[in-house]
Each structure stands twice: as structure tokens, then as C-alpha cells.
Design brief:
By secondary structure, the chain is α+β, with helices and mostly antiparallel strands. It has two domains: 90 residues, Sandwich (Tumour Suppressor Smad4), CATH 2.60.200; 189 residues, Alpha-Beta Plaits (2-Layer Sandwich). It is 26% helix and 31% strand. A hairpin with an 8-residue loop joins strand 20 and strand 21. Helix 1 packs antiparallel against helix 5, helix 2 packs across helix 3 and helix 3 packs antiparallel against helix 4. The longest helix has 21 residues. 42% of the residues are buried.
């Protein structure tokens, strides 16, 4: 879900007990709750679809309660309709707070989490801050293939289709992703709205799973055109670190997320090392490579689209 850059878009900090703060630039309407397409909370007092944050004219921020069970407070006042959230204000839902920073151009201080703009980046942010749950208790330090995905233009799709229809499509998409991952011995590491972070024991398993997802969503569109969605994937293979508590983390998680950010809807984009490992048997096809600079990473990267039947 790519959010266009806006210089007047309000910046908020989402704080939950036991989690590091999450910075979010509200460039488009974003849902907040325990489910749905948006910012996912681990807060039992929050409703599945609790509230929506919307950018307003001139850098304004508006919050709308979505019929939550426990309500939404803005500066300790109940939000009964679309409610303006001035700079410095605090939104409260359950044990979660959302603080509006003092200006649209405010950035996190050095060492703080970066501002997030896409579902992929939200998942990567969560992984970087919390460490990543190990995909399997039997894994030890070694080589893992990490993949990130999200749905292209999901915010616009949700607005066009309406909440009920969008949630049906999102649920079907999620089921396709999870079935494909299980079939290829992979694990769902993190998810945020329509974005996933996945881990696989081999590059070939990862590619087959990603192709399976693309074919699955293509079948959705063929059977019912209004269910057409375009999923983008990025993947990278590298050494990981597994802590004493079984958590998985490291530089290569960030590389995979940045590659996914370069992918277009309907595309699987991988690093050169993934291609080199997976192409040996000759049953997987790759398109013309392209070069890119990846945010926060040095040098120029050579990236390879994976060809699959239907693209």
C-alpha cells in the first residue's frame, strides 16, 4: 500500500505497551484496529476496526471512530463524529495512544524509527524494532530467504469497493498467501494489514510460494473481475542471526524489504543471489534485470523479475 509523499501530511506516533513507537505519515486514510487493512494493534481493548485517521486540508488530521466497542478519546473527550486532531493532541483507544506531532515536517530524532509509508515498510519497521519471531524452533543461525509482499493501491481499492467487500477480498488474499507459504515449508513472520513478511528455508521454496500466490490472485480476478488485486513481492537470501530467545534478525531483512519496495504490482523481484541459487535446475525463469539504489543501503543493486505463467 504505497502512500504518496505529501509535505503537509500529518505525522503521528503510535504507542502500545511492550512495543517500540511506530511513526506513521498519514498521507491517506489509514484504519487502526486489531484487524483489517491498516495499522494492526495488539490491544484487547481495541475493536477489530476501531478508528480511521484521515489527512485534512492544510495539514489537518481527522479521526473517525468506526463504531468501536470502547470508543475513541481525543484529548480525553469522546470523539462522536469526524474530529480534528490539532498538533500536540493525543488520541486514546484502549491502552494505545496516537500522538499528533507538532508539525507535518517533524522527523524522528536520530536513532528513532523512521517514518513509514507502505505496508511493506510497516512490517519491516515492526520486525526491526521487536526482532522477528523465529520461523521454526529448529532453525539455527544460517542462510534464510526472506520475502515481503503487499497489495498495490490497496487503500484506493478499499475505498472503491467499500469496507465489507474489501474485507472479503483481503481475507481471500491472506488465505492464498498463507496456504502457499505452508505448501513450501515457509513461515509467516509478521503481517500488517495487507503486508506480509515471510521466511523460507531455501530460495526455491520462496520462489515457488510467491509464484503460487500470484497464480492464486490471478485466478481470483479471472473468476470475478471485481476481485482483481495486484500483489508485489521482493525477496533476498542471506545469513541471519538467531538470538538465545529464538528471535531472528539481521541486515538481510532490511534488504528484502527494500527490494519489495522496488517491485510493481503483479511482480516478483529478487536479488542476484536468490536468482543464482534458484536458477540452477532450469525450471524457473527470470526477466531482464534492472539496477536500483535501495533506501538506506549503499551501492547499486541488480534486481531480477521472476517470470510466472500469466505475467
Amino acid at each position: 500500500m504505497r502512500l504518496p509523499m505529501r509535505h503537509d501530511a500529518p505525522l503521528v506516533i503510535v504507542r502500545q505497551p511492550g512495543r517500540s513507537p511506530l511513526y506513521v505519515l498519514v498521507a491517506e486514510a489509514i484504519e487502526v484496529g486489531r484487524g483489517g487493512a491498516g495499522i494492526l494493534l495488539d490491544d484487547p481493548e481495541a475493536s477489530r476496526r476501531h478508528l480511521e485517521l484521515r489527512p485534512g486540508p492544510g495539514g489537518d488530521l481527522v479521526v473517525v471512530d468506526l463504531g468501536s466497542a470502547n470508543g475513541t478519546l481525543v484529548n480525553d473527550e469522546i470523539a462522536t463524529g469526524p474530529t480534528s486532531v490539532p498538533p500536540g493532541s493525543t488520541i486514546r483507544l484502549g491502552d494505545t495512544t496516537i500522538e499528533r506531532l507538532d508539525g507535518p515536517s517533524v522527523a524522528p530524532a536520530s536513532g528513532e524509527p523512521e517514518v513509514t509509508y507502505t505496508s511493506i515498510e510497516r512490517v519491516a519497521e515492526q520486525a526491526a524494532q521487536e526482532r522477528v519471531a523465529s520461523p521454526s524452533p529448529d532453525w539455527s543461525e544460517g542462510t534464510v530467504t526472506i520475502a515481503f509482499s503487499d497489495i498495490e493501491s490497496s487503500t484506493e481499492l478499499a475505498q472503491r469497493l467499500g469496507d465489507a467487500r474489501w474485507m472479503e477480498i483481503l481475507a481471500e488474499h491472506n488465505a492464498i498467501v498463507r496456504a502457499s507459504v505452508r505448501a513450501e515449508a515457509g513461515s509467516e513472520v509478521k503481517s500488517q494489514g495487507d503486508g506480509f513478511m515471510l521466511a523460507f528455508p531455501s530460495a526455491r521454496h520462496a520462489l515457488r510460494a510467491m509464484i503460487g500466490v500470484q497464480q492464486g490472485v490471478a485466478q481470483m480476478a479471472a473468476s470475478e473481475p471485481d476481485r482483481a488485486i495486484r500483489v508485489r513481492f521482493g525477496a533476498h537470501t542471506g545469513e541471519v542471526i538467531v538470538g538465545d530467545d529464538g528471535d531472528l534478525y539481521g541486515h538481510h531483512v532490511n534488504v528484502a524489504a527494500r527490494i519489495a519496495g522496488q517491485a510493481a504490482g503483479g511482480e516478483i523481484l529478487v536479488s542476484s543471489i536468490v536468482k543464482e541459487i534458484a536458477e540452477a535446475r532450469g525450471d524457473l525463469r527470470f526477466g531482464e534485470p534492472r539496477t536500483a539504489t535501495l533506501k538506506g543501503l549503499g551501492g547499486v543493486w541488480r534486481l531480477h523479475p521472476v517470470l510466472w505463467e500469466g505475467n
